[in-house]
């Protein structure tokens, strides 16, 4: 709170007073009132005025300055109202009461939405679990009767399963709770699980797979990582090019992290699109060409990776291929610090 | 060899029946009760070798059943569930389940898991070799013999021949063969498969057997 700003606000009142005083003193001077009396009048007029202003300014400053400072220090500014002391002057008190009641209402509002979101999430989770039983049943039926039409159905079911899984993780990623479990696991077995899940797609699309040997362990939530990998591999399969399709999976080790690379020789991503592929709903040129793109897959990967404190990065050369890297922090310590 | 008996505890009728057919087709004896009130009495029967247990069940849930079974029996249990998170998996393991498979499973993977758990649990004197005609595949060391001659096989060749021998007399498509290899962590592609089959054929022929693996154009391979 600056004194100039404070005085500026009261400038009209001061100006009127000064004008009035001048008029009075000119009149007094004209009727030959001695100068010392006019000065005395000035003091009697303005001393109380300025004293009261000074007191008021001091009081306000003492109240508002810490408030402003606290507001800047808080990382959740809306919590400020919780720590405001009730002021001892009238306007302040009115404002304080209003703030308290709006704050309360806001909390109710926010809580209601939180509750709705949690309920919706729970519903989605239950729904996903329910839908898996009929999918499993359908797959078993297909397995039990060997004919070619059924094989096509199987692939479609795989797609449905993938989309269902996406819905589940979308619901999980948008909730504030940490419902993941970080533990040690072998990265390679996580990768092979995903590969096995997509075996049919690899085989029927005639994609060559080159999987490097690695024995590294990482610390993260295995299921989430599996989901991320699955999305990335589905993308690699989906955007593969006509001949000599090839997907290469390997790791590189650095001082502070372990990097998993998934490289394909697919259609690649246009330079102008690549920075936005992790944006929600972004489909770009490839998405438009391939129809079935929703712009959710990579967005979700990024969200989940962020939650798990994993890095995820994408590089691509148009018509030559795409390489996605997932960066796992090396030590337990870095994980715990975060 | 005695047939292994599997108990399926699953409330979705379609899944239960199809799974029963599927496992029966792969040579298991299957029991799939639909009386969930007395499911425990089925589970503790002596002649059950393995239990496939769903979690979401009427009357008692799978965790409860698992715990109850463990009180009296060490029969292998594979939990099959649509719940897919680490917590459920941990919980299952803590309750003494031997494995955890999430729905919808790939049947090849489910078979592999069942096989692995059974092997671990019963360490049965497994058939040491498979034979088709006079061709013999030794499972312990991955070699073949035919009329006194021996040949060593690579891992891929071994798996290919093993699968063809198990399915002897019926046509195995290249895709099916590849899926089988993938389910045991051998990620071969089309070309590699061709190369492996050619090599395998040459090895068998070098022992003097004629036309061991026939190619049915557009359909696959057959060992007869």
UniProtKB/TrEMBL annotation, chain A:
Please indicate which superkingdom the organism of origin belongs to: Bacteria
Catalytic activities? ATP + protein L-histidine = ADP + protein N-phospho-L-histidine
Keywords of the record: ATP-binding, Cell membrane, Kinase, Membrane, Nucleotide-binding, Phosphoprotein, Transferase, Transmembrane, Transmembrane helix, Two-component regulatory system
Q: What is its EC number?
A: 2.7.13.3
How is this protein positioned relative to the membrane? Multi-pass membrane protein
Output the InterPro entries linked to this UniProt entry: BphY/WalK/GraS-like, HATPase_C_sf, HATPase_dom, His_kinase_dom, HisK_dim/P_dom, HisK_dim/P_sf, Sig_transdc_His_kin-like_C
- Molecular function as annotated in GO: kinase activity
Q: Which CDD domains match?
A: HisKA
Any idea where the Histidine kinase domain is? 126-332
Keyword Chaperone in record: no
Q: Which Gene3D superfamilies match?
A: Histidine kinase-like ATPase, C-terminal domain
UniProt keyword Aminoacyl-tRNA synthetase present: no
PANTHER family registered for this protein in UniProt: HISTIDINE KINASE, PHOSPHATE REGULON SENSOR PROTEIN PHOR
Write the protein's name.
Answer: histidine kinase
Annotated source species: Bacillus badius
Automatic annotation (TrEMBL), chain B:
State whether keyword Flavoprotein applies: no
A UniProt-annotated Pfam family: Trans_reg_C
User: What keywords would UniProt list here?
Assistant: DNA-binding, Phosphoprotein, Transcription, Transcription regulation, Two-component regulatory system
Question: Mind telling me which CDD domains this protein's record contains?
Answer: trans_reg_C
Q: Which domain of life is it from?
A: Bacteria
Q: Where is the OmpR/PhoB-type domain?
A: 127-224
Record keywords: Transcription included? yes
What InterPro entries does the entry give?
CheY-like_superfamily, OmpR/PhoB-type_DNA-bd, Sig_transdc_resp-reg_receiver, WalR-like, WH-like_DNA-bd_sf
Q: Which residues carry this modification: 4-aspartylphosphate?
A: 54
Q: Which residues form the signal peptide?
A: none
Ranges for domain Response regulatory: 5-118
Regions recorded as binding DNA: 127-224
PANTHER family the record matches: REGULATOR OF RPOS (PTHR48111), STAGE 0 SPORULATION PROTEIN A HOMOLOG (PTHR48111:SF43)
The protein's name: Two-component response regulator BceR
| Species in which this protein is naturally found | Bacillus badius
């Amino acid at each position: 709170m600056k004194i100039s700003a404070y005085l500026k606000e009261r400038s009209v009142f001061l100006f009127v007073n000064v004008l009035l005083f001048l008029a009075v003193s000119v009149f007094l001077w004209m009727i030959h009132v001695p100068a010392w009396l006019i000065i005395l009048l000035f003091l009697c007029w303005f001393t109380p005025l300025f004293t009261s202003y000074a007191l008021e300014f001091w009081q306000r400053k003492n109240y508002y300055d810490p408030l402003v400072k606290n507001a800047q220090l808080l990382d959740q500014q809306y919590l400020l109202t919780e720590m405001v002391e009730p002021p001892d002057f009238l306007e302040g008190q009115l404002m304080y009461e209003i703030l308290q009641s709006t704050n309360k209402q806001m909390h109710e509002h926010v809580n209601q939405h939180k509750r709705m979101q949690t309920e919706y999430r729970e519903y989605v989770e239950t729904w996903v679990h329910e839908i898996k039983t009929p999918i499993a049943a359908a797959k078993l039926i297909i397995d039990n009767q060997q004919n070619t039409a059924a094989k096509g159905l199987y692939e479609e079911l795989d797609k449905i399963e993938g989309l269902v899984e996406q819905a589940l993780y979308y619901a999980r990623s948008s909730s504030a709770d940490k419902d993941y479990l970080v533990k040690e696991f072998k990265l390679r077995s996580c990768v092979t699980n995903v590969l096995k899940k997509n075996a049919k797609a690899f085989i029927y699309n005639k994609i060559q797979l080159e999987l490097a040997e690695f024995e590294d362990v990482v610390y993260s939530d295995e299921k989430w990582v599996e989901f991320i990998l699955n999305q990335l591999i589905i993308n690699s399969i989906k955007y593969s090019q006509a001949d000599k399709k090839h997907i290469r999976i390997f790791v590189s080790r650095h001082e502070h992290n372990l990097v998993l690379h998934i490289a394909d020789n697919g259609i690649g991503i246009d330079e102008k699109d690549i920075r936005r592929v992790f944006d929600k709903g972004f489909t770009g040129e490839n998405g438009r060409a391939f129809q079935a793109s929703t712009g959710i897959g990579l967005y979700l990967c990024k969200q989940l990776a962020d939650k798990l404190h994993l890095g995820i990065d994408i590089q691509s050369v148009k018509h030559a291929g795409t390489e996605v890297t997932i960066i796992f922090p090396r030590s337990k310590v870095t994980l715990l610090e975060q | 060899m005695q047939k292994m008996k599997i108990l399926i505890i699953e409330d979705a009728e379609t899944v239960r029946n199809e799974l029963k057919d599927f496992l029966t087709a792969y040579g298991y004896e299957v029991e799939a009760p639909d009386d969930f009130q007395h499911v425990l009495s089925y589970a503790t029967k002596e002649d059950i070798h393995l239990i496939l247990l769903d979690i979401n069940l009427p009357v008692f849930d799978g965790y409860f059943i698992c715990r109850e079974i463990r009180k009296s029996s060490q029969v292998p249990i594979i939990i099959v569930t649509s719940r897919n998170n680490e917590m459920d998996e941990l919980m299952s393991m803590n309750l003494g389940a031997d494995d955890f498979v999430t729905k919808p499973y790939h049947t090849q993977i489910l078979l592999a898991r069942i096989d692995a758990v059974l092997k671990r649990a019963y360490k049965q004197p497994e058939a040491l070799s498979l034979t088709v005609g006079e061709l013999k595949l030794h499972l312990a060391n991955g070699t073949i013999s035919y009329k006194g001659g021996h040949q060593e096989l690579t891992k891929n060749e071994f798996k290919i021949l093993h699968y063809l021998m198990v399915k002897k007399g019926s046509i195995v498509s290249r895709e099916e063969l590849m899926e089988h290899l993938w389910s045991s962590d051998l990620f071969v592609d089309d070309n590699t498969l061709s190369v492996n089959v050619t090599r395998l054929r040459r090895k068998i022929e070098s022992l003097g057997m004629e036309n061991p693996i026939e190619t049915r154009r557009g359909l696959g391979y057959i060992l007869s």
